[in-house]
Automatic annotation (TrEMBL):
Coiled coil: none annotated. Gene3D superfamilies: Nucleotidyltransferases domain 2. Residues 10-125 form the HEPN domain. It comes from Gloeomargarita lithophora Alchichica-D10. This is HEPN domain-containing protein. Pfam families: HEPN.
């Protein structure tokens, strides 16, 4: 059952990646940022679930990958640090990009440069996390059981 959930998270992240271009093209940079955070969260959590790691109730699960580095031998120390850093950085924009605030209107606040950075973060995380699946594909037996 865990493998199915991991596969679901991974696949939904991939679907969302395809949707980023729609929001980008219409200039909805706030939703590009918000969706990018969701994508990164799903990709990281898919890997954690796949490896049998309980990440708790958090939107910033990057630190869990670092704490369980022995479960991810395919990730370099630099990649582990990048996962943790990007997850932390983009997590801070999660609610703001979606709800805004009295003095921050998301469609006005988020600019193309913010969307470009968020998309670059997605690309970096996707490239790293895909290694988690590359051994024998999504349906493969996880390396670690719990």
């Amino acid at each position: 059952m865990r493998k199915k959930l991991a596969k679901d998270y991974y696949q939904r992240a991939k679907y969302r990646i395809q949707g980023l271009s729609f929001f980008y093209e219409i200039g909805d940079y706030a939703d590009v940022v918000r969706m990018s955070q969701e994508i990164i969260e799903l990709l990281i959590k898919a890997c954690l679930i796949y490896r049998g790691i309980n990440y708790g109730k958090t939107h910033d699960a990057g630190g869990q990958v670092v704490e369980n580095r022995e479960r991810f031998p395919e990730f370099s120390d630099e990649e582990l640090s990048l996962i943790e850093e990007i997850s932390y950085i983009i997590r801070k924009d999660r609610e703001l990009a979606f709800y805004g605030a009295v003095d921050i209107i998301p469609l006005e606040y988020y600019k193309q440069k913010n969307a470009d950075q968020a998309i670059a973060f997605v690309s970096q995380i996707e490239q790293i996390v895909d290694k988690c699946w590359n051994d024998t594909a999504i349906g493969a037996e996880p390396e670690y059981e719990s």
